[in-house]
Specification:
Elements: E1 2-3, H1 9-13, E2 18-19, H2 20-26, H3 32-40, E3 44-46, E4 49-50, E5 57-58, E6 65-67, E7 70-72, E8 80-85, H4 102-105, E9 114-116, E10 124-130, H5 133-140, E11 148-155, H6 162-168, E12 170-172, E13 175-177, E14 181-188, E15 191-198, H7 205-212, E16 217-225, E17 228-229, E18 238-240, H8 243-252
Parallel strand pairs: 1-4, 10-16
Antiparallel strand pairs: 2-5, 3-4, 3-6, 6-7, 8-10, 8-18, 9-10, 11-15, 11-16, 12-13, 14-15, 16-17
Helix pairs in contact: 2-3
Length: 255
């Protein structure tokens, strides 16, 4: 990171862009005066350079801004929603068979949205909706390594050795899969609850993986996507991503 207190003189001289403190305040992180203080303390970066001068201007649609190292999303017309999908809802925006779809759960949104990845019809939990095609592609592609966390009710009991086996990798019909994390939340008799974290996106991957190692899934919920958590989001409800959540996902996907 480079500190250059006058690095944006040329840009401001041209009177282009928007004053940095105004962009910061508009993002909702603090008042205009508090944002000016953040700049004065050297806590704001623009395109990798610390900016302290209050006259600095930026293009809010292209500048990569960080406050205390955390990414601030650029101004955008795109929409980013997280939805807690109920069981029985198809992970599509339309269904020729007339089954309930995601569209019905966001019917009050005027944007033309599409889903990021899928959840099985009988799986509930977090799913992203957006109108940003590149973001959707990167979030869904396993090469970007965005972790998904699932909680599964499975046939028990679960052996303590299972975690090591799943981390080492299991060979399925369509290739090997290894989890990033695995833990047993609860286990007793013929029932157990486990947590699985992985960045795989293959169809029915969690159900197929657990069935393969002898623990068929009775119920499955996706509880997290990267930094996004299901906390407080009731089944069937959605909300917009926070600035912090979106910034973290943009960093994870290299946008």
């Amino acid at each position: 990171m480079t500190v250059r207190h006058t690095s944006m003189t040329e840009q401001s001289a041209e009177h282009t862009g928007v004053r940095l403190q105004k962009v910061l305040a508009a993002s909702g992180i603090a008042s205009r005066r508090a944002c000016e203080q953040l700049m004065a303390e050297g806590r704001v970066e623009v395109d990798g350079e610390v900016v302290t001068r209050l006259g600095a201007r930026v293009d809010p649609e292209t500048a990569i801004i960080r406050v205390d190292g955390k990414r601030l999303p650029t101004a955008s017309r795109h929409v980013y929603l997280v939805l807690n999908k109920p069981r029985g809802v198809v992970s599509t925006m339309a269904d020729p068979q007339g089954r309930p779809t995601l569209t019905e759960l966001v019917a009050d949104r005027p944007e033309r949205l599409f889903h990021v990845g899928r959840l099985d019809t009988d799986t509930e939990g977090l799913i992203l909706l957006t109108n940003d095609g590149e973001f959707a592609h990167r979030m869904a592609h396993p090469s970007y390594g965005v972790l998904k966390t699932y909680v599964a009710e499975v046939a028990g009991p679960v052996s303590p050795k299972l975690s090591r086996r799943l981390r080492a990798g299991v060979e399925l019909d369509d290739g090997q899969v290894a989890v990033d994390e695995f833990r047993v939340i609860e286990s007793g008799g013929k029932r157990a609850i486990v947590e699985v974290v992985l960045h795989e996106g293959r169809k029915h991957i969690v159900r197929r993986l657990l069935a393969h190692v002898g623990h068929p899934v009775h119920r499955l919920t996706r509880t997290a996507i990267g930094p996004l958590r299901i906390n407080g989001l009731r089944v069937g409800q959605y909300r917009e991503l926070t600035v912090e959540e979106l910034g973290a996902l943009l960093d994870e996907t290299g946008l």
